[in-house]
Amino acid sequence: MAEPQHKRAPHTDFQIMVFMVSLCFACGLLLSVVAYTLSGPQKEAKEFDRSKQMLIAAKILNHAGYFQIESEGGDFVPATFDPSEKILVKTEGEPPKATEEQIKEISELRIRPLLTNKAGEVTTFKAQNLTLSEYLEDNQKSGYAKLPYKLFYVILPNEAGVAEESGEDLSKVSAFVIPVSGFGLWGPIYGYIAIAPNGDDVIGTTWYDHGETPGLGANIAEAWWQKQFYGKLVFQPSSDGSVDLPTTDMGIIVVKGKVSDVYSDSPKSKSAVDGISGATLTGDGVTAAYKDSLTPYRDFLIKVHKDG
After folding, report:
1. pTM of the entire structure?
2. For 129, which DSSP code?
3. How many domains does the chain have?
4. Can you tell me the distance from the alpha carbon of 268 to that of 283, in angstroms, rounded to the nearest whole number?
5. Does residue 139 lie in a domain region?
6. How far is the CA of 44 from the CAs of 48, 112, 179, 180, 233, in angstroms?
């Protein structure tokens, strides 16, 4: 005669609850460990991308990932990194693509973060007892333009020995890079604008973080659109060509259509760029971002302009 089979006791609600809580706790712990493990590499990747974008804005690196230097004629020509002299040198033919290590080294050699106040006075993070990483983390989303001490970067010249320079002597810099932020059609947009030592001429610009529509507003991040900023003026001239530095509007205007149709060859065209078809609202957001981000730096740029 077969022995009777023992039936398993049904799981109680309490046991099921304990299992679910334990599973959630284990998953949460696993995700926390993974996030903590990846936080370091993610932070380094963001820092690298910021440096890379500044080099692109300053035309030290092009959008394709190649180094370049300005020739005597004003054109930008291919360059390679000379590890012995720690400088970029002109090269003939097709240069090798810049490596991540070379980009990091050039960034460390030539980029210096500094601060300026409302009066345009320049100071350092150390002098203000501030830490760059904490400053960036606390203010990156809201922007730096309205802070008591506003962030900007100086780009040191392509010369041997620049690693020893602090960047505080503004007469020795080749460009100023100012962070730009605002709102496009779908959300926040972040970028940089590089300005020549005279505090007025634009060298280049980048938009590296945005959520704009691919093929339309997202074109603000494309090289073909950004190249038209070179040589534009951040202090907007009036219709008669005069510029009153303390009062004139600042920034670059993204027009609806083409600059040639809107301003023809009037002085105002010197601070305007062609818009992107089908992305008028993004263009308006970019215009506002340049104005709002650059105007608080007015006294600093005036000082630079006059000293220059």
Report:
1. 0.85
2. T
3. 1
4. 17
5. yes
6. 6, 17, 19, 21, 34
The sign of the dihedral angle between the CA atoms of 173, 174, 179, 182 is positive
Q: Find residue 250's DSSP bridge partners.
A: 235
> CA nearest 179: which of 210, 151, 203?
151
Please check whether residue 36 lies inside any domain of the structure: no
Residue span of the structural domain in which 290 resides: 111-307
The number of C-alpha atoms within 13 Å of 112 and in the hemisphere containing its C-beta is 26
In angstroms, rounded to a whole number, what is the distance separating the alpha carbons of residues 81 and 17?
A: 62
Burial status of residue 147 (CB atoms within 10 A of its CB: 0-12, 13-18, 19 or more) = middle
Look at phi and psi of residue 79 and say left if phi exceeds 0, alpha if psi is from -120 to 50, else beta.
beta
Taking only the tens place, the pLDDT of each residue in 241-278 is 999 999 999 999 999 999 999 999 999 999 999 999 99
Sheet containing 76-82: which strands, arranged edge to edge? 68-70, 76-82, 87-90
Q: CB–CB of 155/204 below 8 Å?
A: no
How far is the C-alpha of 238 from the C-alpha of 267, rounded, in Å? 7
Residues in the chain: 308
- For 69-99, the pLDDT digits (tens) are 998 888 899 999 999 999 999 998 888 999 9
